[in-house]
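Researcher: Next sequence.
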Amino acid sequence: MMIKKIVVIMLLAFVPMITFAQASGGQIRRKPQTSSSSKPSRTQTARRTEPTRQLTAEQKSILDNIAYNMVYVEGGTFMMGPIADEKWQAWDQEGKLHRVALSSFFISKYEVTQEIWETVMEKNPSSFYGAKRPVENVNWEECQVFIKKLNALTGKKYRLPSEAEWEFAARGGNKSMGYKYSGSNNINDVAWYKNNSSNMTHEVGLKKPNELGLYDMTGNVLEFCQDYYEVYNENPLTNPTGPTSGFFRVYRGGGWRSSIEYRYCHISARQPIPPTQIYNYVGLRLALSY
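Model: Next structure:
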């Protein structure tokens, strides 16, 4: 008798569950078990959401301004790597000084801001919030997703600059005056860095521009380049885009936490970075082929 009572109680407890499932038109389903290893990465999640929405007038204006702020960089030849007084403080990964010839291209006057990123990606991962501040806390792979979506929304072919394009532009292109930092020998004129940043990013374009009219090429946030990382040799190159394969990518330019005492801010400074690594002092700047 005791066993029969237990069975009846269990059946009565289960009836409401069946009734609720039937009333809602569904079935009783066990929640699938997922392991932490099957959780999608930030990049995989971003890739699933392709831009299908219509932009508002304000959003369209934000994206249209990207093209307006692209600066033409006339092609030329320059010495890439640590030069003059940079040599004594250069890291091994900066490699050998070598001659590089580049075709003309366009590069953005400003780093990609949070309002641009949020317009495209519909989210803002940055640590230091501000529409006109540079986006950060993004990795190289997420930047590729961002650019793909941006191009779909605008019909353009934006991309990250190559390392050679970045350094040529940072040095002032054919208008270069040979400054130690991008636009001046006085870093406080052109950069937000460890000594003046108050440990945060700042709105783009507040410091003086370099010879090409580009802002924050030194300081504020470091910037991703398209290339795989490799150590330079002395061979002359034409329109180099780095090795065809590898793991590490490259970021350049110094950031809000960079110190001049430890060589992070001079123009030839470069560091390898895993493509999925994020920092709140690394962002991006867009380029466009001519």
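Model: Helices lie at 2-23, 42-47, 57-68, 114-121, 140-154, 163-170, 187-190. The chain is about 25% helix and 15% strand.
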